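Hi V.,

Quick status before I head out on leave. The structure for the redesign project is tokenized and pasted below; the design run finished overnight.
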């Protein structure tokens, strides 16, 4: 039997991955440095024992959505939950993207926005951020101009009737942005919300580490979708749980493209119980923000160029060759993210803010490298 080939475009795609090396200090994928509270784990264990895993989970994740809605002061109908924020993004693109439609991104930014768009057959329109890695005022016009150029290339003589520009149905705004750590200023976000022709998806995977959130604008902008995750602040990266807060019509469309029972019973219970520990998590965020400031100051003192961060990581450019620095850090059993081959990030590395002990080990390795 001859096996069928994959889709032609899939065959050309590269999977998303980050290096996994055997090191003592892992500061490359922006995980929380501490595990969840012991009291949370005990409560989850009791919940699992009562849950009846022989039964299918609540298909609508009602209790979890109600808990998240209460946490943000919105209605349950405005909340969508999925297996990590990446499945939230995939559901948005399955519902609103696809062939003949486009999504806009502003690079450098989170690679999964473009990657998942490509998987769903959605064209990607890209504009570059400014020299401070922020979205500039003309960025929306630039991506729409690229959409018009894309259509002209595919239909140069207008053979398919009246031509229209391929405007983005989804505009992704990662804020704080990965890998730069920059939070979009209010005026920049306002410009995107005003000018973007479709949904504006603000990816706030690192939102709790920033001084403000786009959630504050939801009432004024029904086109706004805010995406968050339990991976960072809630120390549950291994659980894979994310959610979106959006207009109920957007949530309903996303629900139509998910598989039945896609959110298991344990995940739903864990997300609901985690919100009971909001105070402890906020204290952890405060400690990480303080440690981020110390780490940034130490990097500056070592002669590194440091990008201001509102996330739980720091983008920096060390003196000398970044790849050589990365290799020396690995020799000292410290792993950071080498982003020096990414567009516009030549010479840069990204380090997650860890515990003070982990950060001290990183700084010692960096001093040796320099």
């Amino acid at each position: 039997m001859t096996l069928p080939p994959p889709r032609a475009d899939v065959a050309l795609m590269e999977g998303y991955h980050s290096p996994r090396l055997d090191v003592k200090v892992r500061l490359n994928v922006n995980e929380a440095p501490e595990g969840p509270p012991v009291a949370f784990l005990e409560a989850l264990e009791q919940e699992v024992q009562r849950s009846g895993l022989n039964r299918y989970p609540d298909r609508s994740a009602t209790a979890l959505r109600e808990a998240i809605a209460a946490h943000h002061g919105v209605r349950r109908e405005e909340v969508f939950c999925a297996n990590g924020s990446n499945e939230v993004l995939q559901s948005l693109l399955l519902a609103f993207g696809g062939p003949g439609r486009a999504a806009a991104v502003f690079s450098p930014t989170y690679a999964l926005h473009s990657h998942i768009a490509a998987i769903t057959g959605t064209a990607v329109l890209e504009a570059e951020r400014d020299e401070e890695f922020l979205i500039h005022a003309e960025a929306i016009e630039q991506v729409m101009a690229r959409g018009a150029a894309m259509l002209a290339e595919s239909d140069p003589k207008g053979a398919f009737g009246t031509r229209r520009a391929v405007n983005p149905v989804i505009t992704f705004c990662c804020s704080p942005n990965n890998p730069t750590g920059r939070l979009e200023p209010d005026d920049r976000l306002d410009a995107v919300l005003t000018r973007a022709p479709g949904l504006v998806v603000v990816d706030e995977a690192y939102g709790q580490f920033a001084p403000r959130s786009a959630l504050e604008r939801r009432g004024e902008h029904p086109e706004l979708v805010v995406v968050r995750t339990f991976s960072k602040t809630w120390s549950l990266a291994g659980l894979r749980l994310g959610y979106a807060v959006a207009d109920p019509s957007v949530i309903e469309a996303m629900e139509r493209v998910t598989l039945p029972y896609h959110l298991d019973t344990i995940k739903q219970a864990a997300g609901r119980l985690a919100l009971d520990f909001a105070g402890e998590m906020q204290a952890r965020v405060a400690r990480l923000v303080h440690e981020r400031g110390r780490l940034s100051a130490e990097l500056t003192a070592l002669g590194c160029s440091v990008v201001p961060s509102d996330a739980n990581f720091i983008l920096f450019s060390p003196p000398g060759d970044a790849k050589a620095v990365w290799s020396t850090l690995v020799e000292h059993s410290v792993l950071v993210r080498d982003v020096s081959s990414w567009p516009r990030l030549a010479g840069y590395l990204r380090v997650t803010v860890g515990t003070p002990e982990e950060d001290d080990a990183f700084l010692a390795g960096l001093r040796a490298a320099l």
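Above is the designed sequence. The domain at 8-37+279-369 is CATH 3.90.1150.10 (Aspartate Aminotransferase, domain 1).

G. will cover questions while I'm gone.

Best,
W.
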